[in-house]
UniProtKB/TrEMBL annotation:
GO molecular-function term, one example from the UniProt record: protein dimerization activity
Occurrences of domain O-methyltransferase dimerisation (ranges): 23-118
InterPro entries from the UniProt entry: COMT-like (IPR016461), COMT_C (IPR001077), COMT_dimerisation (IPR012967), SAM-dependent_MTases_sf (IPR029063), WH-like_DNA-bd_sf (IPR036388), WH_DNA-bd_sf (IPR036390)
Coiled coil: none
Keyword Transferase: yes
PROSITE patterns per record: SAM_OMT_II
Residue numbers annotated as active site: H261 (proton acceptor)
Keyword S-adenosyl-L-methionine: yes
Protein name (database record): O-methyltransferase ZRP4
GO biological process, one term: methylation
């Protein structure tokens, strides 16, 4: 009997289980690169175009440019997407029809791939950014980077010889997505504020969403001149050129989305000290609002925890990091704040209110 090998049946099973886990980590990049190929080929759009019943491979291929000799490869790729939840499949019962197409499986969008189509909640640009070679290749050097003493250029700068500047459609798509949720889940956070500065606000999508939902809040964006130069015109949002390490313009509330995790504790303390100087006391509405990960604050589901840990390693790309509650608390206190409240309702991220 094969199962009663030298190691004993259960040991063999344990070894094979261990190898399965190892395969999962080893092949994680195939999952990611397959997803990138789906974006490159617009496979989700092709399925979406065919409507709710889904699309067969011939129907997908009619809208996706691949070489006809590679159609069997596309079938194999679709099998991976079904296994990883990117798409779903429905196999029609055998029809006995002579029409080969009648027995073709139908591929459908799942909630995951719905985030890759349409004009609302579309995260294609962010997914394309994270799977872009410029963002992927630096991680080949992660092990070597650990050999060097800090402060060392971040992994991105080591790989590309220049700093990362992420002001693009990827960040915009995240802003549209998460701000709608933040505003509906946490309206009270923005209520009662007269003015707000989105510090490191990029092209201002978050500030625009806040200004639209709360017309009484005067919203500004603070960012570098080369970023502000690309900002859209004709909005109620005011764009201010400046450096958050020097000072921030005065307002009731300072807002940070995906900014503080780019920086080490010393830098965050400096930035928050500047905020402290620019806001009124708590009784007059003064606060800082942060959208970022608080490690350990949300679900304890292992898929959630894994993403927290992956984001933390990802932030090494710019010498940033994800923080747990104690780490956040330390920088809040050091910057002269007295209290904070964490609301973990943004999936893997939280909204943090920090009070003077
Ligand atoms: N909050 C935006 C952008 C995050 S990317 C969003 O979530 O989409 C980080 C932003 O911080 C970039 O726009 C970058 O230009 C800006 N930034 C970096 N250093 C800065 C500084 N010293 N002063 C002001 N903005 C800065």
């Amino acid at each position: 009997m094969g199962s009663m090998a030298l190691n004993g049946g259960s040991t063999n099973q344990a070894l094979l289980d261990a190898q399965l886990e190892l395969w999962h980590s080893t092949f994680a990049h195939i999952k990611s690169m397959a997803l990138k190929s789906a974006l490159d080929l617009h496979i989700a759009d092709a399925i979406h175009h065919h409507g709710d019943n889904g699309a067969t491979i011939p129907q997908i291929v009619s809208r996706v440019t691949i070489h006809s000799s590679k159609i069997p490869c596309l079938r194999r790729l679709m099998r991976l997407f079904v296994a990883t939840g990117v798409f779903a499949v429905h196999h029609p019962p055998p029809s006995g029809s002579r029409d080969a197409d009648a027995d073709e499986p139908m591929y459908m969008l799942t909630p995951t791939s719905r985030l890759l189509v349409g004009s609302q909640n579309n995260l294609t640009a962010l997914t394309a950014l994270v799977t872009h070679p410029a963002m992927v290749t630096p991680f080949f050097e992660l092990g070597k980077w650990l050999l060097h003493e800090l402060p060392d250029p971040c992994i991105f700068k080591r790989a590309h010889g220049r700093a990362l500047s992420l002001v693009n459609d990827g960040m915009l798509s995240d802003s549209h997505f998460i701000m709608d949720i933040a505003i509906s889940e946490c309206a009270h956070v923005f209520g009662g504020i007269g003015s707000l500065v989105d510090v490191g606000g990029g092209l201002g999508a978050a500030a625009k969403a806040i200004s639209k939902a709360f017309p009484g809040v005067e919203c500004s964006v603070l960012d570098f001149d080369h970023v502000v130069a690309k900002a859209p015109s004709g909005t109620k949002v005011r764009y201010v050129v400046g450096d958050m390490f020097e000072s921030v313009p005065p307002a009731d509330a300072m807002f940070f989305k995906w900014v503080l995790h780019d920086w080490g504790d010393e830098e965050c303390t400096m930035i928050l000290k500047n905020c402290r100087k620019a806001i009124p006391p708590r009784e007059k509405g003064g606060k800082v609002i942060i959208i970022d990960i608080v490690v350990g604050a949300g679900s304890s589901d292992f898929r959630h925890k894994e993403i927290e840990a992956l984001f933390d390693i990802y932030m090494m790309i710019v010498n940033g990091k994800e923080r747990n509650e104690q780490e956040w608390k330390k920088i809040f206190l050091r910057a002269g704040f007295s209290d904070y409240k964490i609301t973990p309702v943004l999936g893997v991220r939280s909204i943090i209110e920090v009070y003077p």
